[in-house]
Write the structure tokens for this entry.
Amino acid sequence: MIKKITFDTGIQGKHLLVLGAIHGNEIVGPNAIFKVIDDIQTYKINLKQGKVTFVPICNFNAYKRDVRQIDENLNRMIKYCEKPITYEQKLANEICQLIKQSDVLLDLHSTHCEGDVPFVFCDYPTTDNLKMVNSLSVDYVLLGWPQIYSGCTDIADYSTEKCAHDYQKIGVTLECGYHKEPKAMNIAYEAIVNVLLHFGIIDGVLASLPPKTTIRLTEYIVKKKSGYLCQNYKHLDVVQKGQKLAKYDDGEILYAPKDGYILLPNADADIGAEWYYLGVRE
Ligand SMILES: [Zn+2]
């Protein structure tokens, strides 16, 4: 059973659901959520209307072992499973229920490379989702994740965001930066507070934020055989058309097809897994 805590004002308003550690080793979300819970319990944060449910640690067994997952990637399988077998299938059933019972989802993640820049995934850029994105103090928004996987049979995309969208809820995924970067916890904490403000669950006015850079994902590249990335690429590095991005050990070279960005590069990707993504500015 997933541990959660709900604060209900008893006054009509939005019901926000905040998730942490969908991936067990992403400790930024849990740390920020525990701090917000403490601040609500000690009246440093005062709720005005609606309610908020926190799940600081969705994947508890993976969190305890400091690993991403136990049996499978929880953020690729958030859908109801009639006869759950794996640990994550059992979790997914509970998480689906929680998403269904709420109005708004904020899913907090962190990333595995030092220096990673925070950004927000907005897989379903509805007016409400884009307004929510604009309440978050990060500089980059990534669009188009579902589109690059549409028609793909070997990689399923049942994310928390997809589940929220399917239930006609508002919802985005925030990548707060590197797991061990202290500032990442502040970004996650601020995001929760800003979303509470945005939906009027707490009193106050959102500070105006600078405009964000919006990048549309155009494709993902699967590592097909043994090889390496040509540079120590970081997420959101700018690439130019024709630039060498990766080289297979048999000599085949992968080039950037156009000017844009390299996204979510994983130098340690297994063969058959996503190696890096490409995107262009909207
Ligand atoms: Zn994650």
